[in-house]
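Morning!

As promised:
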Amino acid sequence: MVTTAEPVTKLVEAFNKLPGIGPKSAQRLTYYLLSRPGEEAKALAEAILALKEKTRLCSVCFYITDCDPCRICQDRERDHSKICVVERPSDIPPLERTGKYNGVYHVLHGPISPAQGIGPGELKAKEFLSRLQDGSVTEVILATNPNLEGETTAMYLRRMILPLGIRITRLARGLPFGADLEYADDMTLSQALEDRQEF
Amino acid sequence: MGAPRSYQTQAIIIKQTKLGEVDKILTIYTPEFGKLKAVAKGVCRPGSKLGGNVELLTHSLLMLARGRNLDIVTQSQTIDGFLVLKSDLWRMACGLYVLELIDSFTLENSGNHPLFDLLLDTLQRLCQGDDSETVLRYFELHLLDYLGYRPQLHRCVGCNSPIKPVVNFFSSSQGGILCSHCGQKEPDSRPLSVGALKILRLWQSFDYATARRVKVRSELRSELEQVMPGYIKYLLQREVKSIAWLRELRKESIVDNNCGRN
């Protein structure tokens, strides 16, 4: 016998499909929304709809945007001769929060992952290389993740950019703030030693 | 008395899968237990104590606590990070191919000391700058050997006659060489030159120190590149995913100088 109202079951099922949300959390979220005023639920529903309807990828940098080109690419105050290459759209907000970078970005939408059969053809790598052809770019910052897939991607892009004579930099690797030297791995520690700075 | 709650083992990290926000499921290859899966908690956090010690292509000493479903990595220390390998695009691709083969061919909880040693030696050989194609082919042949798929290279797998020094055939479905007569009747077999067969026999029967001394001509290289991966594809009934990346790098001529290519 079905005892729960159908809209409730439907929403529980929908929440349950989201990453990290199990059946109990889905139920809790549903009953929470049920207890809130109608406007709040409506605002959430509209925000979800707008997410799919009003966003697209920037035709220049492939960041998620509601206007094309995106606000970063349109900004004339930014230094368009520097391009920072990131794996995913979610990598841009933390870089922006630092307030230290005034160039533009390029989102690859993933790293090269040989084990999953993902090569440069599946990423926005060709589009990135074509951005470099007009000669206006003077520096490329490779900000892919410091893991094996990120390194593979960075090394591949470096090979491709090298003949163009553009300065290529990579985000520094070393010990994170709050870390313990004793527990640092060899790769990080050797990199931290090599790239040590005057103090 | 039950099994101890925690245990220590050497391991080579062969695969990582994300689990939630900051955890990862590691697939590791160990000498005593073979392939295992274990959870590395909080490993995606920048300050994680496990961090680079459990990165792919790393030989580490791990302390694991027995969990209900999967064991949990509690401590880790790098034995060899294969840093040389990780700083070269081609060699890293070779390393990833080796890891994928191990992951694809082995079962969990079946220890195989010689296979662990072969894996470790192969990664070290790639680091040392040995001819990468020889290292890979030697690894493939001996991996198949340890797992019971050793290809028959001395007698015809069709009629059992001795192989003559002419162009013969390699049949993946029959697991070895077909003589020139039988090979023509088998549509899926591929021709194999005398030179390529000699090299395969030598790599299969001799130790690595002897195998590495053989200089392989470039036309034989391309032939051998086709034969072994073709056999592996037949055994797995699918393409090894990372081979596409190796082919892409070969196409772009991103191969190292030591492997005899331009």
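The domain at 79-170 of chain A is CATH 3.40.1360.10 (Dna Topoisomerase Vi A Subunit; Chain: A, domain 2).

Hope this helps with the figure draft.
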